[in-house]
Specification:
By secondary structure, the chain is α/β, with parallel strands linked by helices. It has 13 helices and 16 strands. The strands form three sheets. A nine-stranded mixed sheet has the order 5-4-3-2-6-1-7-9-8. Strands 13-12-14-15-16 form a five-stranded mixed sheet, with helices on both faces. Strand 3, helix 4 and strand 4 form a beta-alpha-beta unit. Helix 10 runs parallel beside helix 11. The radius of gyration is 22 Å and the shape is globular. It starts with a strand and ends with a helix.
Length: 377
């Protein structure tokens, strides 16, 4: 069953602690990293924390930037991501800030916990998962019922441990703070367990203020890296955007998403967006991205159809726009047929310009579906 792309996010001390045992929350990150986390939050469909985090930290779990919230609304998404928590007991304080800030909320719990949560009068959807919590069932429910395609998990340590040991995490974003806790009673990020996949693959490392961000992808033992789940997630989203295009008898329906190397969505677009009858998906997406953003150099453009190499409606084809933006990686589901342009070869233009093109044919059916009337399907 499909489930969201699961991104684990945490900050730890040099000796691996999430917090100390003092009465106040230990701030491991600084302003620059808080802003980075805010950006990641703005890019996801839902944020999940455990009941222990609600009890210990009483977080609001918001996107703080008004500009990022406005951008979500402009893209047709809710102002805030869905807020998700998990509690086997259902015993949660209805006065906690989690319930009274942001947008929609959902509690996943057991059958017994659901009765207790409803008795508390929690201001949220309550979803019982049976006699015990079932992470696979939870993730499938988020995907199918709430439309969550990208899930950010902010803790706590027990939840991170469970998702990793069950092989359900697609990415780990770990921030290392330059301090020690040294208290054996303090909470650690990971607990004991039979972790799946062995050694993780390092995707990125970079300083953010005085902390260091490290991004890892789980790998399978003895087989090297798994297929990059992120590519499948974002290309599936591009195909969903293609399905939103106004119909046309003279142009393809295409969706595109521009994504930074750290998994942050920079922009999205689709064909004929905003009532422009000739705008292409990649063109619409890149027009929303900041051309001075240094992340474009390591970003990926996900397009449901191979970017065009020639067009009559604009001076520059999409392959050229991508190269001019500095992007050097493109993932697509479907090579452009000769329906409107003979010998179309956007991949050739991109490759000649120094870009890498990846084709994931398992998404071709979804990419071609909105265009069946143009290609005889």
């Amino acid at each position: 069953m499909p489930h969201p792309y699961v991104l684990l996010s945490a900050a730890v001390s040099l000796d691996g602690y999430l917090d100390d045992t003092g009465p106040e929350r230990l701030l491991l990150s600084g302003p620059a990293d808080f802003d980075r986390v805010d950006e990641v939050r703005a890019s996801v469909d839902a944020i999940l924390i455990g009941a222990g985090t609600i009890r210990a930290d009483n977080p609001r779990l918001l996107v703080n930037s008004p500009e990022r919230r406005a951008a979500r609304v402009a893209e047709g998404r809710p102002e805030y991501p869905l807020k998700v928590t998990v509690s086997g007991s259902g015993d949660l304080d209805p006065a906690a800030r989690f319930w009274h800030t942001g947008g929609e909320k959902v509690l996943y719990t057991t059958d017994e916990g659901a009765e207790r949560a409803r008795a508390h009068g929690l201001a949220t959807d309550v979803v019982p998962l049976g006699a015990a919590l079932d992470w696979r069932r939870l993730l499938t429910h988020l995907y199918d019922v709430y439309g969550v395609r990208r899930l950010m998990v902010e803790g706590g340590g027990l939840i991170h441990t469970q998702l990793l040991t069950q092989g359900l995490a697609d990415e780990l974003q770990l921030v290392l703070a330059p301090l020690f806790v040294g208290d054996p009673e303090a909470a650690r990020l990971f607990g004991p367990g039979a972790y799946q996949g062995g050694r993780l693959r390092l995707l990125e490392t970079r300083p953010v203020g005085d902390v260091v961000l490290m991004r890892y992808e789980p790998t399978a033992p003895g087989t090297g890296p798994l297929p990059v789940a992120a590519d499948h997630h974002w290309l599936a989203l591009a195909c969903e955007l293609a399905a939103q295009c106004p119909p046309s008898e003279t142009a393809f329906s295409v969706g595109a998403v521009v994504v930074a190397a750290d998994g942050t969505e920079l922009a999205r677009g689709h064909s004929r967006e905003g009532g422009d009858p000739v705008v292409h998906a990649e063109e619409a997406a890149l027009a929303k991205a900041d051309p001075t953003d240094p992340r474009l150099a390591t970003a990926t453009v996900y397009s449901s159809l191979e970017p065009c190499a020639r067009r009559a409606s604009r001076p520059a084809p999409c392959a050229r726009l991508i190269l001019d933006a500095g992007v050097r990686r493109v993932v697509t589901a479907w090579r452009e047929p000769d329906t409107f342009v003979a010998d179309a070869d956007g991949s050739g233009v991109l490759t000649a310009g120094g870009a890498r093109v990846v084709v994931l044919p398992e998404h071709e059916e979804a990419a071609t579906a909105p265009n069946g009337h143009l290609i005889g399907r």
